[in-house]
Amino acid sequence: MAVIVHPLNIYMCLFFVVSAEMILTPSSLICQDMVKLSRDRRAYEAHRSRDNVVKPSSGSSPSRGSVFATANSTSVAAQIGGTAKLPCIVRKFNNGVVSWIRKDITPPTILTVGLGPYIADDRFMVEHARHLQNWDLVIKHVRPSDAGLYECQVSTHPATSIFIELRVTEASAEIIGAPDLHVRAGSSLRLVCTILRSTEPPVYVFWYHDQRMINHDVGVSVTIDRTSSVLQLQDADTTHSGNYTCDPANAIPAYINVHVLNATEEENPAAMLHASSSGISTALFMTIMLIVAVNITFSLNS
């Protein structure tokens, strides 16, 4: 049989339950059940109310890990003249605004707000892809003065940030075998240029012979990869002697002096070996004759 819980019944039951002289009868047990049901209902309503209340902010900022997918204190390197990309992936964006701020200068300078620039320098821009949640700061034509500390800030309440360090390097070229290289006429000329401290593949590598660009000359082959370039030239002759320059984009160029030796019949390997042997024999003969002359002179003086 269902029991109807009426407030009056509850009050009456409370009176009888708390009475020290109460006798436990079926009616009193029913009253106990009614009181318990009422207490359970009040506890449930109170718990549900607490869950539906929006709690005020305690004043502490959200953890960086809950907002950003990019690690704090990330370090990025870029070469002078190149392009730097400072990462900032925002995991929880909601309705906030992402800003980039240069932090290590006085006063700190706001660079971008949302997708728009905040300063007149058009080298700074934000690269954003909605499905990737990235808000990367891109700096074109990097300068040494761009090195420093940058802040990616999301306008939560209070604001939450991560910091990215930009290191600027100076790339330079180096030609293997420099400063001088000797090759025999008729052989191939192969120059290997490595690019040191580069952070991106070169857009171009120009090769010069005595200050004239030769990348597209007949008989000249130039290959380029991320950190090197190779110049090859078949059947070198004396006209190929001179100064060669390897000049990569956004890097200090390198130089080498090439000497092409004209190979005559007397300068073939066998002839050179014979000439070398003859030279040694002549030198040895002259040394012996000098020793004999000295001994004779010493004997006469004695």
Helix content: 25-40%
CATH superfamily label of the largest domain = Immunoglobulins
| Architecture (CATH level 2) name of the largest domain | Sandwich
Which structural class fits the helix and strand makeup?
alpha+beta
Strand order, largest beta sheet: 1-9-8-3-4-5
Main sheet characteristics: 6 strands, mixed
- Form type: elongated
Number of E-state strands: 18
What top-tier CATH class of the largest domain fits best? Mainly Beta
Mean pLDDT across the residues is 78
How many helices in DSSP terms? 4
* Amount of beta strand: 25-35%
Distance from first to last alpha carbon: 154 Å
Q: Indicate the radius of gyration in whole angstroms.
A: 44 Å
Q: What sequence of helices (H) and strands (E) makes up the elements? A: HHHEEEEEEEEEEEEEEEEEEH
Q: Any low-confidence stretches, pLDDT <50, length ≥5?
A: 1-31, 43-61, 269-280
Q: How many separate domains?
A: 3
Summarize this, please?
Helix content is about 25%, strand content about 35%. By secondary structure, the protein is α+β, with helices and mostly antiparallel strands. It folds into three domains: about 40 residues, no CATH class; about 110 residues, Immunoglobulins (Immunoglobulin-like); about 90 residues, Immunoglobulin-like (Sandwich).
